[in-house]
Amino acid sequence: xxxxSRNESHDSLRAVQWRGDHLRLLDQRKLPFDEQWLDRHTAGxxxxxxxxxxxxxxxxxxxxxxxxxxxxxxxxxxxDAAVATLRAAxxxxxxxxxxxxxxxxxxxxxxxxxxxxxEAQAIQDEDLAANRAMGxxxxxxxxxxxxxxxxxxxxxxxxxxxxxxxxxxxAGYASGKIARVFADETRPWxxxxxxxxxxxxxxxxxxxxxxxxAASHLMKSGQVQWVIxxxxxxxxxxxxxxxxxxxxxxxxxRHHGVKFMVVAPSTTVDLATPSGEAIAxxxxxxxxxxxxxxxxxxxxxxxxxxxxxxxxxxxxxDVLVTERGVITRPDAAALGAMFGNQGKR
Length: 345
Ligand code: MRU
Description:
The protein has helices spanning about 5-10, 45-50, 60-75, 80-85, 95-110, 115-140, 165-175, 190-200, 215-220, 245-255, 285-290, 330-340, and strands at about 15-20, 25, 35-40, 145-150, 180-185, 210, 225-230, 235, 240-245, 260-265, 290, 295, 310, 320, 325-330. The chain is α/β, with parallel strands linked by helices. The protein has a 7-stranded mixed beta sheet, sandwiched between helices. A 3-stranded antiparallel beta sheet has the order 1-2-3, with helices on one face. The protein has a 3-stranded antiparallel beta sheet with strand order 8-9-13, covered by helices on one side. Strand 1 and strand 2 (about 25) form a beta hairpin. Helix 2 (about 45-50) packs parallel to helix 4 (about 80-85) and helix 3 (about 60-75) runs antiparallel to helix 6. The protein is globular, with a radius of gyration of 19 Å. Residues about 1-5 have low confidence and may be disordered. Bound molecules: 5-S-methyl-1-O-phosphono-5-thio-D-ribulose. 5-S-methyl-1-O-phosphono-5-thio-D-ribulose binds near residues 57, 154, 230 and 231.
């Protein structure tokens, strides 16, 4: 079996599916025990699905938003309002804004619904191709027999397919580079426990769950050589916003001599954001921390603070992998050289 076909056999899931006149989404709030698909027929419904985390993960929400614009065009709904509603669904992942800007450019050029549908399909197809390319490049950096730790869910559920950090893990496992995969729970929404563990198990990649608070202890034990994560927005200087808890993993990794890899398509690089300071961090409802699955777990009257992303300073990142190539020790000079001419936003 060559590496490509082995990769295929570890990549069976497509969570965002266009059905000609509606968008079908695998409801990620219900996984892993309930595989429920929801059909969304308007841009407003897609925006709500993004806000409520039916669909989540930076590339996936960009793709879903692009299809939301197509739905508005097909129905003759106002495109300006549709784009504005979709853009406001979540603040941190720049892939959402990037995809809408790309659709906006087509609208401004006079595109009809059919042309917009081709553009949305191109965004989705390009993401899958980028993930496969990043998977190969990232895996090539890893010594055979290594252990890795990942955070949140960056797999097929979070992208057009294959995944970013999880794509590197898929490719690394298929090629024998990765011998051990650890996933942390990713409280409070449990993307790691509920989604990554399910996705890896389903695709035949053995993984071990740890509590978020076990990460430093795991690194100290010598079982992992790399922490591999995705990104929601990468500033021009390489500072990287990702799921809350990523920053503390990067600090712990540096302390223990474990390498830290960020894997993200170029659509996550935001040339309009000079550094992490300027990245809007989404604050979600404290109820996500104060209870679980509708059941209160904290004393009545208690308060909670629930930022759902943090920013890892670029000097804690050893390697940034995008489909355009690998940057070691990412900084403004290196990102400028690779992305300076991409003419975005
Ligand atoms: O709140 P989420 O689940 O949308 O957050 C997702 C993440 O932080 C991912 O790590 C990131 O979007 C990269 S997904 C390829």
